[in-house]
Design a protein that fits this description.
Number of strands: 2
Largest sheet: 2 strands, antiparallel
Low-confidence stretches: none
Order of helices and strands: EEH
Strand order of the largest sheet: 1-2
């Protein structure tokens, strides 16, 4: 909910103050975060090697092209 004060500046107000706070802040979420980081690193390494292989292939083809 958005409230406008007399000065004209908007202020955010929580609609549901009795809303429960998520209790899953323990080891499960920590393990999931570690898995996400590991997956992201693997994807970055794979994509980087794929790009490097493509550049190498361009140089290889360019070096063996008939002139």
């Amino acid at each position: 909910m958005l409230l406008i004060l007399e000065e004209g500046s908007p202020v955010m107000v929580d609609d549901a103050p009795g809303r429960p706070v998520p209790s899953d802040t323990g080891a499960k979420s920590e393990k999931w975060a570690e898995r996400q980081v590991a997956l992201r690193v693997l994807v970055y390494v794979f994509v980087t090697h794929l790009f490097a292989g493509f550049i190498w292939l361009l140089f290889y083809i360019g070096g063996h092209a008939d002139q």
